[in-house]
Amino acid sequence: MYSRISKLTCLIVALACAALMPAVVAAQEAAKPASKAPAANSPSKWDIFGGYSYLAPKGDLVKPNNVLGVPPDTAKSINYGAIGSVTRYFSNNFGVQLEGDYHDMHNEDKPNNDFSGGSGGLVFRFPTEDITPFVHALVGGESVGSYYFDNKWGVVLTAGGGLDYQTPLFNRHLSIRIFQADYQYTHVNYAPLGRGNFNMARLSAGLVANIGTIAPPPPPTMACSASPASVFPGDPVTVTATPDGLNPKWNTIYTWTGDGVTGNGTTANINTGALAPGTYTVKGNLKEGKPGKEGLKPWQLADCSATYTVKEFEPPTATCSVNPTSIKPGDSATVTVQGVSPQNRPLTYTYATSAGTISGTGTTATLASAGASPGPIQVTTTVADDKGHTTTCTANATFEAPPPPPPPPPASLLLHSVFFPTALPNEKRPDKGLAESQEQILTTLATDFKTYLQARPDARLTLTGHADPRGGAKYNQALTERRVGSVKNFLVQLGVPESSIDTVALGDTHALSKDEVKTLVQQNPDLTDEERKKILRNINQIYLAQNRRVDVTLANTGQQSVQIYPFNAHDAGTLLSEKAQAHAKKQPAEPKKK
């Protein structure tokens, strides 16, 4: 009796361990980060069954043996039984199964028999939404014993089937096995007593835990977008992939295909510089899986596509203007162009005019009236980008007729430059710098100019002051300002209107060169050849004296004063001296001034 109880306990523990192993594995996987949800209502991967089993064997446990005096022991139906099985499915229909059962009459008062064993084999199911019929065929070992004899092991063959109903409990992970009906055949050798052959009918029912799913995980998804979606040739496009449903435990590889596309991650760049206008498609591909095994299964793949448009370049636009629109003879105007490229392409400008001349290559050009006949003219500007697109704009202007020529100045209005002694006028006596001979020149100029003003009231004199280069720039600038001021004041005192006189002080910035001074000496009509030779021996002194002067210009005609030096004047020695006069300002610490 105790041996049967011990066998029953061991069998129950073994079946429980076998049944709990997949549950433990499933629990461990459930504790890991979730990867992907399987398809809804997919058949389970593991079925763990446990329940009650009734056994009806037919056959003798031991054949009568009169020699040994062994009584017959015929197998009887057993109401006490348990059954358990673990099934692993590899597809919706096919799987392998391990099964164990235990049957014992538990009657100590009369002869009894027990059957227990374990088998393995194939199972086929036919799942529907709620009902799953199945058939199986198993082979294994069966332990057969009785009240009189110890248990012996023999081969057992099992064939049968059943019907499971899947309940909504535990998220459809619990089923009720409505029935399982099996035919079993076992053969046990009790040598030397005899043999036992049994044909058994087994009927079972119980609960089934449905664990996992046989359906493959859903594949990842990936969406692609191109930004910007519309560009001009040469503008960059970025394509971005947005994956979803990736397994965090797997490696992911991205590839891109399309014209001008480069990249191997979730973003790719497209070079549109060589693309013709049109619509283009770029495709992205995703593979996931263990490193080196990415994309080997259908649910490890995803792809996407995005489109973008390369637009035709738009031609530039341009507007033109001329300022001023009325141009006097000899004057010029500015042509201004505002060119715009919608794609910010570099622009070039070409100008043409119906009269006059125009020059310029940028957004502005100069329109000159020189040589043109009076009348309306039109300026045309062509604006081109680097893609060969062009546009034109026009602007109109008018060349004015020249004014009537001014009356010629009187013959006596001869302009002579006025020369100064060194460093005069000085700061202390800015009004005392003119030599007597030069005052006479200015007196004649004042008389003649006042007469000229009667014919040309708009006539103007421009006085331009110069200095020799011996002083510093600041000193020479102030000196020439005093010189033109001295000449102007002298003319005003003689009745020349102050408003008719302009002054310009140049310091030593426009000094004549020694070669220019030498030419002026050679052209001086008041000198003999002998005098010229003598003067040129002192060219350094003459060079300095020639640059201490104020030039006179008749502004409305452009007539300029002659720069003939007064070598024959009675005070020429004063003018030629390189030393400052007695009343000149003394210059501390600086080079000697003119």
Q: Can you walk me through this structure?
A:
This protein is an alpha+beta fold. It folds into four domains: 2-211, Porin (Beta Barrel), CATH 2.40.160.20; 221-310, Immunoglobulin-like; 317-399, Immunoglobulin-like; 418-576, 60s Ribosomal Protein L30, Chain: A (2-Layer Sandwich), CATH 3.30.1330. 18% of the residues lie in helices and 41% in strands. The chain is built from eight helices and 31 strands. It has helices spanning 2-31, 169-172, 436-455, 473-493, 514-522, 529-537, 539-546, 572-576, and strands at residues 46-58, 60-62, 73-74, 81-89, 94-104, 113-125, 131-146, 152-166, 174-190, 194-211, 221-227, 230-231, 237-244, 251-257, 261-262, 267-270, 278-289, 301-310, 317-323, 326-327, 332-340, 347-353, 357-359, 364-368, 375-385, 390-399, 418-419, 461-465, 501-505, 549-554, 559-560. Strands 1-4-5-6-7-8-9-10 form an eight-stranded antiparallel barrel. The longest helix is centred in the N-terminal third of the chain and has 30 residues, at 2-31. The termini are far apart.
